[in-house]
Design brief:
By secondary structure, this protein is α/β, with parallel strands linked by helices. The chain contains nine helices and 13 strands. The mean pLDDT is 92.
């Protein structure tokens, strides 16, 4: 059976899969990154994991993988296949595409940014399926974005496209590690809501999920914290949709797990802010934590499709 290897490397763990031509996850596996042993060990772990998947596919499916795709966090030079920087993993300028290709017997390898790769999957086979223009925004520890255009995701001239979390929504507000003040992710990420709710309720262990539960039960303090986050998020999203005019706006990440506790006030807040802009469909992400693996698999299949077309051209 023809298949590809897909790897989704996070700050603490790696998810991997063998993906069929129809996008089905044939085999899935997980393991820690081992980042406590240093950046070299993380790279070795990725290479070993990929090699094990290749061997598994050859043994169980009768043929080795035809290509591989890997999604990584941080700054990614997708064109040259270099993982340029990842604070959580401690690496700088790792030629990951070439290292993987060498380890996997020279098969084509695609390297992608984790959020853009997850967005690719959501846009093609998830919540944005059928939309010619979409914006995928996961609300997690930070806030990032993936700009979808006709079945692909725009990386930008320097690989920074979609960084909506660093749009300033509260000028002069909370300092952000990026160097600005008042960035969206300092007010509307799951981490920001957790911090605000822990301070408001006096429980340092409380998090965004606890805040959402308190909102649902009518706690006025929780409602205030939640609405402040929703208002900041709506301000940032209206800026994005003014620039990009997406048909579908896909919200994912930990905060989206609150369901309509988030989506009902968010849709209202966005609707109240727009004037001439067209209101996009605002929907929850559909693929959960499989989006990165599925997207990495799509990158690998795209490589094969591109190679096949080149070979067919006289």
């Amino acid at each position: 059976m023809r298949h590809v290897i897909a790897l989704d490397v996070g700050g603490t763990g790696m998810k991997a899969a063998l993906v069929g031509a129809d996008g089905a996850l044939i085999h899935q596996a997980r393991r820690p990154t081992g980042r406590e042993r240093g950046p070299g060990a993380v790279v070795d772990g990725i290479l070993d994991f990929a090699a094990e998947l290749r061997a598994y596919g050859e043994q169980r499916l009768g043929t080795p993988a035809a290509a591989a795709g890997v999604a990584v966090p941080g700054i990614v030079d997708e064109q040259h296949g270099i993982a340029a920087y990842a604070a959580n993993l401690g690496w700088h300028d790792v030629p990951l595409r070439d290292l993987l290709a060498d380890r996997l017997g020279g098969i084509p390898v695609a390297l992608g940014h984790d959020v853009r790769t997850g967005g690719l999957a959501e846009g093609r086979i998830g919540a944005g399926r059928g939309a010619d223009r979409f914006l995928f925004v996961p609300l997690g520890t930070g806030i990032a974005g993936a700009i979808g255009i006709d079945g692909r995701v725009e990386a930008g001239a320097h690989g920074f496209a979609g960084e909506i979390g660093h749009v300033v929504v509260r000028p002069g507000g909370t300092p952000c590690p990026c160097g600005q003040r008042g960035c969206l992710e300092r007010f509307a990420s799951a981490a920001a809501v957790s911090e605000a709710w822990a301070a408001a309720c006096g429980d340092p262990e409380a998090d965004a999920a606890d805040c959402a539960k308190a909102v649902a039960s009518g706690d006025p303090n929780a409602v205030r914290v939640w609405q402040e986050a929703v208002d900041a998020l709506a301000d940032g999203l209206v800026t994005a949709l003014t620039l990009l005019d997406p048909r579908t706006l896909i919200i994912g990440g930990g905060l989206a797990e609150a369901g309509e506790t988030l989506f009902t006030p968010l849709r209202d807040a966005v609707r109240e802010r727009i004037t001439f802009q067209k209101l996009p469909t605002i929907v929850p992400a559909a693929l959960g934590d499989t989006a990165g693996c599925l997207g990495a698999g799509l990158l690998a299949w795209d490589l094969l499709d591109h190679t096949d077309r080149k070979e067919e051209t006289p």
